[in-house]
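Q: Two folds, back to back.
A: First:
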Amino acid sequence: MTALSAADWQAVEPLLDAALALPPADRPTFLDTLPPEHQRWRATLERLLQAELAAADAGFLSQPASLAGGTTGPEGGGNPPWQTGQQVGPWVLMDELGRGGMASVWRARPHSGDFQREVALKLPHSPAPGWLERLKRERDLLARLQHAGIARLYDAGVDAQGLPWLAMECVAGRDILGWCEARHASVPERVALLLQVADALQYAHSRLVLHRDIKPANVMVQDDGAVRLLDFGIARSLAAETDATALTQLGQRPMTPEYASPEQVRGEEPGIASDVYAFGVLAYRLLSGASPYAAAAPASRHALERAVLEAEPPAPSTATRDAATRKALRGDLDAIVRKALAKEPARRYATMDALAADLRRHLAGEAVLARPPSWRYRAGRVIARHRWAVGASTLAVLALVGTTGWALRAASDARQEARRSGAMVEFLTGLFNPLREAQPDTRHRDVPARQLIEDGARRVLGSLQDEPLAREQLLVDLGTLTQQLGLPELSRQLAEERVHQAERLHGTRSRAYADALLGQRDLWESAGRYADGLKAATEALAIYQALGETDPQRLALAHLTLGGFSARMHAPEAADIEHLTTAARLLQPLPGPNLLGTVYEQLLVAHLGRGEMEAAYQAGMQGVQANRAQRGADDWKTAASEDQVGQVALFTQRPAEAGTLIRHGLQVLRKAMGPDVVILARGEANLALLAMAAGQVDEARAHVAEARRITTLPANQAMAAFALTVEATALDVAQQSGDWDTLHRGCERWGRDVQAPQPALRLRLQQACAADAVHRGDLDRARALLDQARGVAQKFFAQVPARHAAIALREGEWLAAQGRRDEAAAQWRQVLRLDDPSIVTPRAQAFAQLRAAQALTADDLASAERLRAQLQRAGGSTHWTTPLGLLGTP
């Protein structure tokens, strides 16, 4: 295949990305429907797609690249296929950072553009069995992780020869051991670095990702002391029910023996406790300068694994030769590290957060939970912290009498934290052993994460009343997880209880109360409760401003909610756009993941309300790009934004792109959240509109049926906005296809008064039911519905003529039913001559009505010809069979 130039690749890459997002069976149709200006790339795209399928069939990336050692190319000899200056996709290779037998890591930069960011590019030498699944897993897991302490995934794609690549943050620095040795770092400085690692791991665990290979080589420290956690090549998702990875298929155990937990050595499935253990080994090495299994490591792998299973490591303080270090480690740090290295997972810290909290207590001179909670120890820590403020006589008393009220009060902070941590551990333990049996039933130890989270949510609603701080944190975390897992009713209950808890604990003028109010935003949106959300957001922003809040994420959420909900309740105003642009401005500098994609989605809605179709599309695509950059292409938030902008792509006469975006979005959502999550209903409704435009009536009805199935599930019945969107689409499909019985059954529930939370949705329902009333000869009811619709259009969309088009169509039908043909023709002519790409079908329907009434003029014919030409340029009969059929032949 002839090499592509940089300019050629810029043209081909977006088309290749769109094709790769489709199932292989849909790709020929995509190629068949390429616009004329892109047909020149068809043969190139076919070759690239064939190469991608061949790579997938052969397997790709069966083992990770090594950044140290390994100088041979594929199959143990020869030069690697990558060279300095070579272009790979959008990147130019600069220099090789490391090479293994099957892959290389290169420093690279973009081949064009003003923004020249260097990346670490992971490249295979050639397709090989097992590599593809590893690369996909690493890409998918990294896409979830956007944290200052984790090397970021910037992009992923396929090069011109069909070989995949990963572009990651290029971290300049040294591994954590080398960095500390070069600077002769003190024990507190080393503990501070460990805290950065712990925070990064806790974040990964909160996103249901295990690292499974924590060791010094995978922890880089930059010159400024900032830590970056690297290499998630053998990481695993906690949410997966199975882990049929390439390593497992190859008969390997994915681990570094010296840092492997006992359960990993035994071949058991690792969990969070295994990462805690590996962190303990890292801490031991970093603090003492020796391995906890120093005696066994040089002997053999078998001896090392036996030591991991059976030998109790000596205290870190006894492993160091430096007297000052020995003194610094003795006591708290010995206890913390040994707790992390406990052979039994249940005896280790339950989470990285709990371990990090003990390290912070040590640095602050407070009592650590790893040590026995005796009064003498706790009092000693209090005295050490307040050495210069406590008189000699008081010291003597405290040394002799440990049960004084003063001593107990001084230790209250430590006890409160201990109770909170204990309550969290007790809660989590109860999920696995609810009956507190001495020998818990382990037959169901592989319960899927979704069920555990659901059980945990139900449990926290009725428990932990005597531990409010632990309960408060669980309400926040479980509220987010239940929402993401498609459990809306549980999420609503948790969010409302969080508000009540914040009011009881902190009061209604507190930051926590404002946070809790805004924590209901997504629930308000899905239920169509815009007035409630607007009121609460106004209150929350006022609280933040009164407290002098500077956190950009808090302020952005308040502005997002104000602007987004206000734009849903009336004609979007400049103030609504300003709220949303303020939110975007606050979030853009942040590394993410954050709500930037959601802000752009709300800007899309606001621009739609103003009739600014192209601005709506551009805002939507900015949202998709923000979500892809922050969360990855296969995240549910990215998928939801693709689905939403897909509908706008149809309205702006981009039907092929609309289909690609919507279908990919639905595929990801089903994979991430299951087949019944309510947001899928919106995507199915969008596919119904797409199918209807293409004249595929049966397919449109099937999509409507699936959308209705989802919205009528018991768990989704509270989501009124989704249900009404599906209902409006069902009525549109019935009206456009002439299915008058179905249209009438759908409109019976409304009578003469149609209500919906969104004005645009109300208009769709009103005009469809007006068509039903006219068809059945109920002109009084039709008149009432049209008057309602006119009122909504004038109030909310006075400056958006396209929003009046469907009403004018129905008005014409009502006039024609009364024999007022000239007035009816005037209404239809008004619709036909609206040059707006979002109302293709109403304009074509207006032309058909004029033709049936024999009222066409030369100007009408010219307008129809312009519309026909637009549709031919935008995909022709492949995508626009219904409106082209109404327009007829020239």
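A: Second:
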Amino acid sequence: MTQTTSNNNNNELDTELSKNLAKYSLLLDKLSTSSQVDKLSIIIENDRTNQQTKLNNFIQESQLSHNKQIRKLELQRTDLTTTLTKYHSILSNLQASNWKGQLINKNIKSIDNERIIIQDTLDFLKDIRTLKNNITLIDSAIKEENYQVAATSIQEITNLPHYEQLINSEFAKKIVPSSTIPEEPSILLDNWCMELTQLFKEQFIAAANENDVDTLTLVFKMFPMVGQDSLGLDLYSKYVCDIIAEESRKILTQKISQSTNTSYYSQALLHLFKIVSTIINDHSKIIATCYGKKFMIHVMENVEKEADLQAGLLLDIFAESRNLDGIVKDIDDWNLRQRKHAQRQKQRTINNSMSDHNEVDNDDGGDDSSMMNFSMNQLVVLVNEFSQILQNWSMYARFFSVRWNEFSDLEPANILIAPTPISNSKFIKKLNEEQFLSNFEKLTMYYLQKSFSNSISIEELPKLNDLIELPTFVHKEESLYPITSVLEDLSLLIRKNLISNVNTGQFELFQSFIDQLSTFIQNEYLVKFMQVRLKMLQPKLSGSIGLKKYVPKIDSTSPLPSRTVSPMNTNASSSINAHGVPNLKLSSLSKFDFRGAAASALTNIQSNLQTGFIEEAITTNVESAIFLHHYLIYINSLYVSKLLFHKLLIEELIEENPKLLSDNFPFKENSKTLITKLQSCESLIDKQTDKLIKWSIKYMFQNIFLSKIRVLLNQLFINGDNNENFYIAGMDNYEDLTKINEFVRKWQHLIIPYQNVLFDKGINELLTLVVEFIVNLLEKRFDSLQVNELGATKLDRELSLFIGTVCGLNYKLRERFTRLTQIVLLLGFDDDDFDVETQDVKEDISTGIDWVLSPQERIEARKLKIDRRN
């Protein structure tokens, strides 16, 4: 505080001195007489006196303040000296206390050591007493053949702390022996353990031979008591492996009497794995109690080896009994003939040597079913049983892996990893090295290909007459659209094969099947069937063909074509539902159980096929309209294909059964990998299908619709002297909407049959092409149209009615007419709505509308109005 005051005084003096100097400098500048000099001298003297006085006061105050500070510091130094003295005194006390504490701690440790020594001596004496008592008890029990008591006593001795040091100590050697039992403890225990081990081994083997479960269990529990854990587990493992082998022999000896059972070997393998699973579950309690849970790993390894051996024998007998190799060889030969036939066909096409159609084709690539040594029904049964065998193994592998992790005290993880006995299993190696899995692939793919080929050979198409005759458009469910019977059969075939492959639980197998299925659908169904069918029909389509009722001509030399019947509704040809839509239903796509036996899902597809008339369609006496019917059915089939494949690959496998793949493929990230692959498979199929759809609809538009649309638009939007460039309306014809009403009638007559027959997305795709053509044509016509004021109003009415007729409630299609509607809107504006200088609409109107027309286009559009003022 004093220092602050002193600083303030210094500042005040400096400030006053500066003011005086400035004042003196100013007065000096104004001096002009000697009297002024005298006056200035007096002023300076007075100022000097004042400043001297202030300086003396300041010095006095400063000295006083300084003396106060010095006295205060002296007092603080005195206090500090007192504190230091007390600190040194306390430090001395602490050193004395520390020394005393160390002395006390040393005494305490010495007492603790003495207590520990006394306690160890006491424990040692107690253990010696326990040892002596138990040795006496063991000797008595062995003489009385009470081996359980003897084993229990031996276990109690071996569980004593420092067992080895105890029995070998000099004290024990002197105290424990007696006149009746003179041997040393270590020698006695070794001899007794060897004697009891041999005795327990003989009793275990005898009990196993006699199937005496109670004695077997009792003896098994006593092996760890005499330190023979490994021997007990080995004997037990051999015992359970003998049980497995014996059950397997029973199964194999029954195979002749069970030869007619189509699922005998899959049931036999399941029974075998049930035995193994029961052993692991039930006996693990005894092992965990008597031996320790970790010893189950040893038992499971031995059990798995025996299960592997017996399962491999069953698999070999299955393959031999069902003639698996012979069937696979026939399929390989068939595939080879098919490839050779395809190569010859390709070579003929390249060489342009297809002229001799009447020559007999000697290739083996045709229908060679008679050359196969098995029937399709036999193949179905074989695939079912094979799938169940693989499924049983997969379920067992999952059970074994889960239990292995539990007995290994592994923390439960989100990812299940197969243990070594499963990953290196001989059964797995056998499936791969002896090509069982690849043979299963061949069986399923042959069944798929051959059944699909049979389905094509008896293909049937529904009739469209009832749909075409409906006077108005009726919305239908997706399953009611008419499609080819081949697609229905294909959906059943794919589902059956998916069931068979998913049930196997074999990741590599199902992954490979998805790839093959994707290739099959794209090549065999979309390209070789759908694309070829559409290409065959396209040359027969022309602008003169209309979608009308098909009435085949009656010829005395040819039979009348039969009526088409839907497989799911035998009244489809004559009955109409409540909505006025014929009951042409797609095969039911209800949920199915992948977990169940595949046999329950496999049915005879030939019994579900429709009765068709495609053969009649290619005769010369049939009207050309039938080809358009077929063409539309195939387009519908393409759209429904996307729905079916999505349901089969995504909905039923992933969405409706979210745990299906994770349950069947539990190891690692296999289920997630399969989900990604299924999604990729569907995506590839969708892309190929979409290309085919766009190509087929575009062809139909260009060859059937284009000419009809041109005719419909010829006399439209013309209103004056039949000049296409004028749309002049007067009071006499302003209300005349005859032309647009006629267009509406003809348009509905043209489009409603297509709307009733064609898939909803298909008709939208077709209308998109139609609208694009109409918009391009009308934009060119409107760009040169001359319109008066009444004509603009009438044109707006006709265009609105035209757009509503063509587009309906499809607002995406309506948006394509935006440029035309804005041109007509401009023609209806008053002259006052335009800026005189720019000739464009005024700013308030321009900002209130989302224009697609540029300012220059708006100016040009206004020029179409012939009665404007400027």
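Q: And?
A: Residues 352-365, 555-622 have pLDDT under 50 and may be disordered.
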